[in-house]
Amino acid sequence: DLAQRMSERAVDVVKYFMKQGQMMKPGDLIDADTAELVATDFGHTVKRVAESDIEGAMFKVEDKPENMEPRPPVVTIMGHVDHGKTSLLDAIRHAKVAAGEAGGITQHIGAYQVDKDGHLITFLDTPGHEAFTAMRARGAQATDIAVLVVAADDSVMPQTIESINHAKAAGVPIIVAINKIDKPSANAQKVRTELLRHEVFVESMGGEVLDVEVSATKGTGIDKLLEAIILQAEVLDLKADPDRTAEGVVIEARLDKGRGPVATVLVQTGTLIPGDIIVVGNEWGRVRALIDDQGDSVETAGPSMPVEVLGLQGVPRAGDTFGTTETEAKAREISEYRQRLAREKAVAKHAGQRGSLEQMMSQLQTVGVKEFPLIIKGDVQGSVEAIAIALEKLGTDEVRARIVHSGAGAITESDISLAETSGAAIIGFNVRANPQARQAAEQAGIEIRYYNVIYNLVDDVKQAMSGLLSPER
Ligand code: GDP
């Protein structure tokens, strides 16, 4: 990279290092000081460009307090498999399409908006917490409210608990939709009671979490659910400034044969218009057209509105954030800079900079955190509980283990993304990670520790925790 930027041959740069007694090959990393030295010795003038100089061309716009206006809430539907997430999303969409847009063919663009008595609500169309956590792992928080679907004939199940933990880790309020209420075996009360055990206290149980009984297939309770969402949104007092350049997040993106890269973005503040020059993650483009969830071309997209963006140069990733720049040159520069950074990161990761339990502890220490976040997966619920109790006993006034999530079963991708967002270490007791999870962990640089003796597990955590207390490293 350095050779290329100096218009020199890579082999000459390698030779230069060799003369200094250093064996280097293309792709190896050098620090900025060394790079400067090399460039100077090759007779080039070096101008140091700070990240802030490049990135600073974006996001310099801020929300103006006097321009702040209410914006629609953005809702994600989560819950256990087969509890009715997809059915509920369809029911909500159909209830509204039938009433409004005559014969409108709805487009699946990854999100849609409904109008309930003049209040707009945005639904993210990918059910489940995978999309939710993938976004959070990239630092984007798109969701304001999580609707937790629990089937009344099945009650609280493992992914229900996972969803609760994901929402809690993100600080997103939950509304409980007790689904399949039409079934003879439905028992809504059991759902409410079981939720208590996971610290979700619905109103009738003396808590503040709203709950609504629905039947996604019969369409009952949908209006009530929408009302609950509006109520919750009012409490949250969601606002944005529509009178500025847009910022937001990618919900999904793909390469379309006819239209090129297509990204569905959620505008989070400001207003996006055709002609805007945007930088999206590592990509950039000039907005050629904006398409809404009805498949119609629109001239503007304001806060909380999902739209498909055409005109990008490449395909960004879900969870990437976007912002605007004034010129195409600036957008290209930022995108090239970020692509280079991403390459360097990949190389560095390849060089084996893996996070270990100990490294994590010292990182926690430097930021002054005295809680040790953990995710525990075990073969049976009983052993998981025993481990949790043993670890909680280790806690002192100064440091304690915080169990972000625990459960029986293999370590999955969902555990990895939760670990990524909550900074937790993962512990497997008599269970392994599935191949996808292993790959995800490797990519994210997250270490998974396996044990089959509780004593060893507790002892390791104890040692790591005492490391957190020691003053040096
Ligand atoms: P998901 O995996 O959470 O997205 O669940 P689906 O929406 O695919 O629903 C799983 C199954 O439950 C499907 O066969 C649905 O028809 C059924 N189902 C969903 N909601 C209801 C409901 O309110 N009542 C009844 N009786 N069945 C439902």
From TrEMBL:
Compartments reported by the entry: Cytoplasm
Any Gene Ontology CC annotation: cytosol
Chief subcellular location: cytoplasm
Keywords in alphabetical order: Cytoplasm, GTP-binding, Initiation factor, Nucleotide-binding, Protein biosynthesis
Start and end residues of each Tr-type G domain: 70-239
Role, per record: One of the essential components for the initiation of protein synthesis. Protects formylmethionyl-tRNA from spontaneous hydrolysis and promotes its binding to the 30S ribosomal subunits. Also involved in the hydrolysis of GTP during the formation of the 70S ribosomal complex.
Descriptive protein name: Translation initiation factor IF-2
Taxonomic source organism: Mesorhizobium australicum
